[in-house]
Amino acid sequence: MARPVSPRCAASVINTWRLPMRSLFLKIFLWFWVAMLLMGGTLILAQRYWAGPSLPTPSAMAAYVAEAERMFAHKDSEGVRLWLRRLNRESELRFFVIEERSRLFPAQRLPRPLQERLEAELDTRQTRGGRPRAVAEAFKVDGREYHLVAMLPHHRYRLQDLPVSLRLGVALAVSAAISLLLAGVISRPIRRIRLAAQRLADGELEARVPPLRGRDEIAELGHDFNLMAERLQHLLEVQTQLLRDVSHELRSPLNRLQVALELARGAAGASAGTSLDRIEREAERLNDLIGQVLSLSRMETGAVEPRWAAVDISGLVRDVVDDAAFEAGDRLSLQFQGAEGISATADAGLLHSAVENVVRNAVQYSPEGGRVGVVLRTDGEAINITVLDDGPGLPEEQLERVFEPFVRVSAARERSTGGYGLGLAIARRALRIHGGDIEAANRPEGGLAVSLRLPRSRPSRDTSVDSP
């Protein structure tokens, strides 16, 4: 029993065989076909324009000579003149008769320029392209020798007489013009789709492909791209709104929990102090988590308006290192290396948050007795801040994922060590608002190196919603 064909499959087959005019395949085929036709037509027109008249064939010359012999035999000089005039009028060739001693018939000496030209034209070695431009046929009447000459007009050139390079140049020029037009027709809409894709990748969720002409596959691709972009924008907006709503909803019971905790601490005895302290720590951690989620959400959606000002980067980084060293105490050592007086146009709060999150991350995962180094240097118009730790490092395939929200990519970096996987995500978002970026790499001697890079000047365009 035959299996039924699905409507979707049947429609696909029909569309494939139908090849409507909106098909890109058919457009390309027709363009190349038209290009070949135009090239052929150009060559044909050039042939007709430049070809001009052809020299008489040997049989035709024999017929002309027979007619001339007959008239000369009858002493019909006037008839010869009229006959030559008629031949010159009816064709684009020049016919004349040369008597002995290079004299034109009747009894006119052949002008020297014409004689030299005739000799050159009759010499096939001196004609263009090796083709003679004149033919002559000798005949005798009453012992006198005559030459019937047929010559192409001097101002007309045949296509065969043109240099091969010029003929190839004409063909190449026509094909290049058509190919250029075809390339523009195909590449222009593709370039628009590519630019829209780049904008979408840069975080412009409103990026769309402008309406494209026609209904071919490229136009359909642009339409499908817009549908995809709308779907992505909707999903991301829903996700961001969900995080924001959940965070706000958690804030209210958390505040009530903290108030109840203080009341319970006052009413309970000393025996409940340990449990209440644990509840307080968990409440503070939850409050910190909610704050980080809200901060990241605001930066993701562009709700953060950077406060641009001249910032002393050297002083900012040194303050972060000093604070981290104070909190770490004797557990490990922190070292700062960098020149003084390095400044940039930045948002001090966002930049401080980015550097602090990276340094705290390094302190958190460095072993006791380890060392954390912070190196500040300039590279032209960019500023580089590198944070080095002695921790366990990361698997190579996870070096990029570590900057995604709520990602803990190693067993050595679990929640039990503290943190929620948001610090580095916030740092990357803050740097991209500044037109910079952040990346991580494993150190050969062990540990992780996190590099922060930002420009000295304010970014030329709004990067507050750039995506990774």
Structure description:
It is an enzyme of class 2 (transferase). This is histidine kinase. Its main location: membrane. There is one protein chain. α7 runs antiparallel to α8, α8 (273-300) packs parallel to α11 (423-433) and α9 (313-328) packs parallel to α10. This protein has helices at 7-18, 24-51, 58-73, 77-90, 112-122, 164-201, 217-267, 273-300, 313-328, 348-365, 423-433, and strands spanning 94-99, 103-104, 108-109, 134-141, 144-151, 309-312, 333-338, 343-346, 371-379, 382-388, 437-442, 448-455. The chain has four domains: 7-52 and 162-196, no CATH class; 58-155, Beta-Lactamase (2-Layer Sandwich); 217-300, Orthogonal Bundle (Helix Hairpins); 309-455, Heat Shock Protein 90, CATH 3.30.565. Helix content is 52%, strand content 15%. β2 and β3 (108-109) form a beta hairpin. It has 468 residues and is of the alpha+beta class. The strands form three sheets. Strands 3-2-1-5-4 form a five-stranded antiparallel β-sheet, with helices on both faces. It has a five-stranded mixed β-sheet with strand order 7-9-10-12-11, with helices on one face. Strands 6-8 form a two-stranded antiparallel ribbon. It has eleven helices and twelve strands.
